[in-house]
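Supplementary Methods, section 5.1.

A reviewer requested that the exact input to the structure prediction be made available. We therefore reproduce it here, unchanged from the version used in the analyses.
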Amino acid sequence: MKSNILKFGLIAGVIIVLIPVLGELIIGYGPASFKTGEIIGYATMILSLMMIFLAVKEYQQRNPKVTLGFTKIFIIGAGISFIAGLMFGIYDVIYVSYIHPEFMQDYYMYYVQSIRDSGISQVEIESQLAKLEQEKALFMNPLFNFFLMFITVFLIGLVVSLLSGLFQREKQALTT
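The structure derived from this sequence is encoded token-by-token as follows.
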């Protein structure tokens, strides 16, 4: 089971890092691409974590006499999610520290402009900008971003793991 987790965790991690890199090469870098980049990023997280389903399927094919219960499926999924989240968090730190050190400032300014262009009242704009300014130091911290990226991938992976466990349990109940 450990080798299965490692194999599919690394595959998920490569997918979750590679697609945004390719996306940036194709759609470019800058405020005009940030919204599309967010969509690509979240879609990639979900896509990469589909490796959980493939890992469970492969494990069952290699071990046909072993019945995988919800707990084992969840453990496989959590392990894959942990590895993918760790890889994405590390990539994020490398990205904002070395590849595009101006990214966090650019992204911050993108959010400031998004708030200004949102059409809400001036009072609400000022309130949101003040809150954003208070959070700026945290937002600019690479370690915070590592944790944020890791936990985002990990939590999405836990949801996929839950669904995989429930789906597989239903499938096993129907076949027995």
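The mean pLDDT is 88. These observations are discussed further in the main text.
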